[in-house]
């Protein structure tokens, strides 16, 4: 006979309490102890202690553990996962609020920069700038229960969602960075956003590029940077172009310190013959500039 469950902690949120009670009810109805759960064919790889923690109401269990628990007990994994998402979502928002309060207190005490408050809800049609897009991504991330960047990376196609890149994008203290459309789509997929809604967000992303020339340049440069030089340089010019770029590499490295737009402008203007020079911005073609700065 299995030992009785400990009472759920008073600190457990109502969402976490609902999940724990559901899992406990499934186990009781199935007549299984935690060791029997661990020995079940559907739960190979998880220990009795893991399942006990999943139902103790102290923390949100992993998705895989929740689904295995429900399946082994003859329950509905989809229902258990919905309860788990509610619990994870509540915990994520509470953690974000507490982190913001601590950050504000630290700012008052030490003058250190504070993190942004929990983000508001923004629909795709509300997004008009890169900062607003990143705010919307933070909101979606919290609504998904704040899965770790590594969890999202594993859920995405290989190479589409590097966890280090995602960490920087979601850090409200970092300088806003433009995600690629592939990264945005992989992020939305990992957060469980349905396909029609993902399409709406990609459309909002493309609208940002249409409305903001600087963002369009950055997106074009990122796309070109992944294309081999031989794809857009004639064969008879390839060797000379490679040599020129190798000789100029150090110069572009220095220019990048001045900011991306300045780099592209300087790189482009440096390639214009003196007799064709005219004041900025008339001779500046952002897409040619992006090509010139390719690979630097």
Count the beta strands.
0
Structurally, the number of domains stands at 3
The biggest sheet, with number of strands, parallel, antiparallel or mixed sense and barrel status, is: none
Mean pLDDT: 79
Radius of gyration: 26 Å
Strand and helix order? HHHHHHHHHHHHHH
- Helix/strand class: mainly alpha
Helix % is 55-70%
The CA-CA distance between the termini, in Å, is 67 Å
So how many helices? 14
- Low-pLDDT residue intervals, each spanning 5 or more residues: 272-284, 292-296
Gross morphology is globular
In terms of DSSP E residues, the strand content is: under 5%
Structure description:
By secondary structure, the protein is mainly α. It has three domains: 14-89, 434 Repressor (Amino-terminal Domain); 119-211, no CATH class; 230-292, no CATH class. The chain is 61% helix and 0% strand. The protein has 14 helices and no strands. α9 runs antiparallel to α10 (195-211) and α10 packs across α11. The chain starts with 13 loop residues before the first helix and ends with a helix.
């Amino acid at each position: 006979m299995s030992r009785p469950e400990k009472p759920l902690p008073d600190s457990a949120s109502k969402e976490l309490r609902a999940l724990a009670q559901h899992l406990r009810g499934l186990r009781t109805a199935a007549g299984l102890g935690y060791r029997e759960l661990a020995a079940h064919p559907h739960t190979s790889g998880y220990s009795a202690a893991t399942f006990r923690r999943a139902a103790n109401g102290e923390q949100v269990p992993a998705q895989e553990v929740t689904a295995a628990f429900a399946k082994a007990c003859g329950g509905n994994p989809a229902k258990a996962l919905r309860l788990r998402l509610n619990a994870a979502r509540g915990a994520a928002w509470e953690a974000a609020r507490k982190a913001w309060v601590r950050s504000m207190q630290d700012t008052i005490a030490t003058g250190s920069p504070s993190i942004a408050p929990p983000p508001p809800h923004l629909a795709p049609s509300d997004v008009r700038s890169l900062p607003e897009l990143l705010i919307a991504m933070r909101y979606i991330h919290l609504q998904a229960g704040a899965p770790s960047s590594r969890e999202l990376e594993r859920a995405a196609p290989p190479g589409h969602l590097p966890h280090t890149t995602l960490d920087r994008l979601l850090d409200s203290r970092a300088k806003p960075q433009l995600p690629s459309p592939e990264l945005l789509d992989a992020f939305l997929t990992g957060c469980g956003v349905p396909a029609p809604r993902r399409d709406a967000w990609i459309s909002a992303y493309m609208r940002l590029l249409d409305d903001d020339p600087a963002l369009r340049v950055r997106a074009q440069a990122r796309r070109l940077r992944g294309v081999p030089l031989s794809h857009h340089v004639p064969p008879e010019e390839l060797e000379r172009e490679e040599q020129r770029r190798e000789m100029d590499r150090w110069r572009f490295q220095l220019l990048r310190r001045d900011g991306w737009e300045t780099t592209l402008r300087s790189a482009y203007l440096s390639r214009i013959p003196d007799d064709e020079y005219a004041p900025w911005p008339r001779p500046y073609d952002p897409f040619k500039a992006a090509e010139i700065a390719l690979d630097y």
